[in-house]
Design a protein that fits this description.
0% strand, transmembrane helix, transmembrane, single chain, elongated, mainly alpha, membrane
Length: 118
């Protein structure tokens, strides 16, 4: 085969993979935007009725949803603090929520004009 044909095929395949990847990400973002309100309602209902498996299920779905707000994460953290001693099975969810809050509280240099020492 000619080198130009090999390069062209490689570029087309690479471009197709990139397009598929971004299309898949857009589908996930749209799905997350549709389900955030329902998941939040289910999570609050599970907390209200002390259903631990439902708290774990909907809490995990919520914390990985990119449309979750800071207030929702803070409320989830407060719920985990109340339940952590009596329900050790929620420890993994508690750690994921903690990591999300910690990541959001970082002071990245780009927020301070590029100077990390402010």
């Amino acid at each position: 085969m000619n080198n130009a044909i090999i390069i062209a095929i490689t570029m087309v395949v690479t471009l197709a993979i990139v397009i598929f990847f971004f299309y898949y990400l857009s589908i996930i973002k749209k799905r997350d935007a549709k389900t955030i309100d329902a998941d939040w309602h289910h999570f609050q209902n599970a907390v209200k009725h002390h259903r631990i498996q439902a708290i774990e299920k909907y809490g995990t779905q919520l914390i990985w949803n990119e449309h979750i707000t800071v207030e929702q994460v803070k409320e989830m953290s407060a719920v985990m603090k109340k339940l952590e001693k009596s329900h050790p099975e929620l420890n993994e969810l508690k750690l994921v929520i903690y990591n999300k809050r910690k990541d959001w509280s970082k002071k990245y240099p780009r927020h301070y004009g590029g100077n990390p020492y402010l």
